[in-house]
Every structure is written in C-alpha cells, then in structure tokens.
Design brief:
With 68 residues, this protein is an all-alpha fold. It contains 2 helices and no strands. The chain is elongated and about 65 Å long. The two termini are 41 Å apart. This is Class A sortase.
C-alpha cells in the first residue's frame, strides 16, 4: 500500500513538471484577460498619459538568479 501511494505521488509530481510550461501559459492568459483597457475611463487614461515620467535606460540591469 505504501509503495503504491509513493508511486502515485511521484507520478503526479512528474506530470506537473512535464506540463508546467502549459500550466504557466494558461495562467498568464487567464490573468492578462482580467485587466483590459475597457475597464478604465477615458479620463483616467488621459490623466495617466499627462503625468511626467523619467526613463533612465542606463540604470536597467539584466535580471539574475540572486536578484529575482
């Protein structure tokens, strides 16, 4: 009984590891569908576009495993 349970757990973990890219893509599609531009008013978008912003592209660094 214990061997059967361990085998099933290992099988489930293996399947999750195999299908993790597909699961990730599905989650990204689901989450990106929630925030659409139709949810915002035109006045909110216009007000946001009028804000001053600074873009310092020299300070951008590549992500590393330690910084994430």
């Amino acid at each position: 009984m214990l061997k059967k349970t361990i085998a099933i757990i290992i099988l489930i973990i293996g399947l999750l590891l195999i299908f993790s890219p597909f699961i990730k893509n599905g989650i990204v599609k689901y989450m990106s569908g929630h925030e659409t531009i139709e949810q915002y008013k035109a006045s909110d978008i216009k007000k946001n576009n009028e804000k001053d912003a600074t873009f310092d592209f020299e300070s951008v660094q590549l992500p590393s495993m330690t910084s994430v």
